[in-house]
């Protein structure tokens, strides 16, 4: 006899096209900026109209490849560009705070790549600056805006899984320390936790809230950044999150949320557009994202949501407010402190 089916609700998300449109400026045109602009120009009505780099030749080449009409030879010039409404900050982690505050001071809205800064204190500085200036600011936690995330939360609101009690998530991508680069450079905010750990820690926050305790075990590179770690986060009512992150190995990117009444198992890798399976007793269901977007193309959902938030007159996202970024960074701060102390 077939098991009963769980009905999957429709995603409640901003449309990729047909909604408000922003004129974006990009600072630091590297790999993540390339994927961001591709996602916007391919899947949304949003348009990047200006780019700035410390190298004018790099800015011009980036603009040529992506059909961007304006280039600037320094960041201040882009911040002063009256045509630019919002700045996407794609620089190394160590630069996020400075660049965000400079853009905010020029009156620009900002979308800041993850992590929002190197610490919770830097996140608080950005939040305070944006609040004082009355501009929109958000960390680019694009997984929050994917269709499957909303559908899972909708099921939770409908009581499908009961009270969430255990989040399990891993994320690892192998990198070669002998090649150097920002991942292994402490001055650039290197390490697995800041680069990748922000995703599983955010996921645990989404489902369980602010932890009452953080326990971290792991290893450091010769340069002193964390290369692999396991975290246990404790929460009220005996809930826990068990998380791992690594730049030594590539892991499946598996994640699940177990509750008092059911289970959500997210298709790997949980950070990308995809689907999930749900189970409550004998009833089962599966949601699949039929948009056709894959991997970092999923950043398009985030951009459409930001445009809608700003059009609605908001200065923070109700889905991923700055408070959440601060709380996630507080957990990461403690995990990094423990790893450094044990290293």
Structural write-up:
The mean pLDDT is 96. With 343 residues, this protein is α/β, with parallel strands linked by helices. The protein has nine helices and 14 strands. The protein is globular, with a radius of gyration of 20 Å. Helix 4 (96-105) packs parallel to helix 5, helix 5 (120-133) runs antiparallel to helix 9 and helix 7 (192-208) packs across helix 9. Helix content is 34%, strand content 23%. An eight-stranded mixed sheet has the order 8-9-10-7-11-12-13-14, covered by helices on one side. Strands 3-2-1-4-5-6 form a six-stranded parallel sheet, sandwiched between helices.
Brief sketch in words of this structure:
With 343 residues, the protein is α/β, with parallel strands linked by helices. Helix content is 34%, strand content 23%. The chain has helices at 31-43, 56-66, 75-79, 96-105, 120-133, 147-157, 192-208, 299-311, 322-342; strands at residues 23-27, 47-52, 70-72, 86-89, 109-112, 137-139, 164-172, 213-220, 226-234, 240-246, 255-259, 263-266, 275-280, 283-288.
- Helix proportion range: 25-40%
Whole-number mean pLDDT: 96
Strand content: 15-25%
Rg measurement, Å? 20 Å
Distance between the terminal alpha carbons, to the nearest Å? 55 Å
Unreliable segments of 5+ consecutive residues? none
Form type:
globular
Secondary structure class reads: alpha/beta
Main sheet summary: 8 strands, mixed
Helix and strand sequence:
EHEHEHEHEHEHEHEEEEEEEHH
Strand arrangement within the widest β-sheet reads 8-9-10-7-11-12-13-14
Please, what is the oligomeric state?
single chain
* E-strand count: 14
Number of helices: 9
